[in-house]
Every structure is written in C-alpha cells, then in structure tokens.
Amino acid sequence: MAYELAPLPYDYFALEPFIDAETMHLHHDKHHQAYVNNVNAALASYPDLAAKSIDDLVAGLADVPEEIRGAVRNNGGGHSNHTAFWKLMGPVGSDGVGGAPTGPIAEQITADFGDFETFKKTFNETTAKQFGSGWGWLVFAAGKLKIITTANQDSPLTHGLYPILGNDVWEHAYYLKYNNRRPDYLAAWWSVVNWHEVNARFAKAKA
Ligand code: MN3
User: 101 alpha carbon to ligand 1 midpoint, in Å?
Assistant: First the structure.
C-alpha cells in the first residue's frame, strides 16, 4: 500500500498572519506531495518495507537496503516530518493553540528550562543556527527534554528519539513571507503551536 498525503487538518489560511496561505499551499501540496511520491517510487519493489508505517520505516532506516536508503532517508523522512508538523500547528485563536504551554509538557518545560520564555529562546537560537536546510526538535531522553537539530529531512526517529515538537527551517517553510529572516519566522511560529498535540506526543515519548 503506497503512502498517501493526508489533507491539512485545517484551512490553508488558518495560520495567518503567522504563516501565509500561499506558503501552506506550496509547502503541503507541492513539497510534501513530492516526498510522498518519491518515497513510494523508491519502495516500488519493496512491498514489505512499504507496508510499514512511515514512522516505523524511518526508525528502521538502518535495515533499508543500501540502494534505496538515501531516497528513503530524504523522502521517507520528509513524509514523516511533515505529517507530524501539520498536526503540531493549529488554527490561530483556537483552544490550546499559541500562548503558553498547558498540561504535563508545561510542567516538564519549567522543570528542565526554568520557564517557557527561556525554553523558547533556547529553541529559537539553536534552530536559527542550523546551517542550511533542516529542523529544530524537542525530544525527551533520559528523563529530560532536549532541543536538537537535524539536517535535511533526517528524523530523530532514526536516532531512537521520538519528536515531541518540531519546526521546519527549510527556506520553503518561510521564505515567501519572511525572506531571509529565519529568526522572525521562528519567533512568530509559537503563535500557531498546538499544545494539545504536543502533550499527546509527549505522552507517547514517555511511554
Ligand atoms: Mn518542509
């Protein structure tokens, strides 16, 4: 069964003014669709691998045959990362979106970073420094939250880490609206973070 691109869980304009509808159309309909098409093409002769969930495929990258490993790393990673990314955001002004974190993740952020502002600052500074294309992530390892970055479409899952929160800092995610001002995009992005989804992923990371 080939992978499929799910529709966005909200309208293309739902994240405005922080992320514009044109960026969302290009990002979801073109970029994410291309990752889906390309990972399906790479797995065309590997039905056993294609039967895995996309997250299981990426977590088991080391077991993928070498001739398609690069394609799976980039495009399977792209599919897994973006599938999480759309759900980690939500319509501006809706319950649990933007503002301060709630629930268990709020307590863990306070425990590990002191307060939300310090956490945000550390996440933004770390992610701003990712050279070229990549992602900033929040993961939970050895009982503590940790901020990491990955290059390209590399997934924390490949390193045994379940991503709780992630932001895409490929230029395709922000260039139309923010041009080269990645730090401005990073600062604005917190207004669309869906803390319900972050808490759901935090629970899974701890399980
Ligand atoms: Mn992207």
Answer: 24
pLDDT tens digits, the chain, 207 residues: what are they? 699 999 999 999 999 999 999 999 999 999 999 999 999 999 999 999 999 999 999 999 999 999 999 999 999 999 999 999 999 999 999 999 999 999 999 999 999 999 999 999 999 999 999 999 999 999 999 999 999 999 999 999 999 999 999 999 999 999 999 999 999 999 999 999 999 999 999 999 998
CATH of 20-207, one of 2.40.30.90, 3.55.40.20, 3.40.50.300, 3.40.50.720: 3.55.40.20
Ligand 1 midpoint to CA 168 (Å): 6
pTM of whole model > 0.90?
yes
Protein residues within 5 Å, CB atom, of ion ligand 1: 168, 170
Distance 27 CA to ligand 1 centre (A): 6
Report the alpha-carbon distance of residue 123 to residue 144 in Å, rounded.
15
Name, in order, each residue with C-beta under 8 angstroms of 91's C-beta and a sequence gap of 6 or more.
10, 11, 14, 15, 97
Ligand 1 centroid to Cα of residue 199, in Å, is 22
Instruction: Compute, in angstroms, the gap from residue 127 CA to the centroid of ligand 1.
Output: 14
